[in-house]
Amino acid sequence: QAAKPHVVVLATGGTIAGAGASAANSATYSAAKVPVDKLLAGLPELGQVARVSGEQVFQIASESFTNDHLLTLARRVSALSKQADVNGIVVTHGTDTLEETAYFLNLVVRTSKPIVVVGSMRPGTALSADGALNLYDAVSVAASQDAAGKGVLVTMNDEIQSGRDVSKSINIKTEAFKSQWGPLGMVVEGRNYWFRAPVKRHTNASEFNIDEIQSLPAVDIVYGYSNMNTTGIEAYGKAGVKALIHAGTGNGSVAAQAVPALRAVRASGVQVIRAARVPDGFVLRNAEQPDDQYDWVVSHDLRPQKARILAMVALTKAQDAKSLQRIFWEY
Ligand SMILES: NC(=O)CC[C@H](N)C(=O)O
């Protein structure tokens, strides 16, 4: 009998490692409590699909992820992906910023080996906890050859999602992760059922490589709303950000009073990227605002928090708006 694939589980915290006072606590609990060894020992079924080893990279709630955490994690994933004795990698993660980390890894880790990021909506101590099955699914996807070359994946609620497309879309149900383009497939009882594949550049086909990235530039987000003022835009401009994501209303529209402030920060060298605060759809170039004339970039279908990740990565190589826009179309 052939040896089972070796899957390394990199644990970073979140609810999947959370613990509550009683089984009735599905929402009131502490995240990032249970160490990876205990998580894996509590799930002996993993041995049916892979030879699993665990590493505790961090033990935090994911809203506290920083760029340093992203860099440290991606470097470890990259190093493991180059090891001949590693077939797949799973990252356990809090769900709040899981989509940002998954997209970051998708952009900068040059491998075709499966990388799966996974979390849970309920702690393991709760009734109907979802973490055990999500983790089992993650390990089984990471152990499968048919998951190779599909970019970084997310397994939640029996679905296999693209790390690029997926977002946490509700904060209370176990079916929390959605993509407007739909999941890539489903995983049921350790078997993958695929229905589509990503078309955007990722992992092996990326021009970015974590092994060449020393640091990430400051990129922040301003939110659009009625009666919006320009205080935030001006403050970020003064703070020296390299790019500012505008989470605009509707089609990425910008309030009349905010346009001069954004043009002023652009004139001072800050890249301006028009995204939208609506969850779905995509922002069209030169619709709503004359992006060519203002030398602005549009985020395509990326939500503001994902546009921030891509902008940081893109700015490690490209400095002009035209190159940034090309990257936003391609990734
Ligand atoms: N469901 C969760 O994982 C949320 C817990 C916590 N806020 C985190 O993102 O780590």
UniProtKB/TrEMBL annotation:
InterPro entries: AsnASE_II, Asp/glu_Ase-like_sf, Asparaginase/glutaminase-like, Asparaginase/glutaminase_AS1, Asparaginase/glutaminase_AS2, Asparaginase_C, L-asparaginase_C, L-asparaginase_N. Residues 219-328 form the Asparaginase/glutaminase C-terminal domain. Residues 6-197 form the L-asparaginase N-terminal domain. SUPFAM superfamilies: Glutaminase/Asparaginase (SSF53774). One of its GO terms (molecular function) is asparaginase activity. It is an enzyme of class 3 (hydrolase). Its EC number is 3.5.1.1. Belongs to the asparaginase 1 family. This is Type II asparaginase.
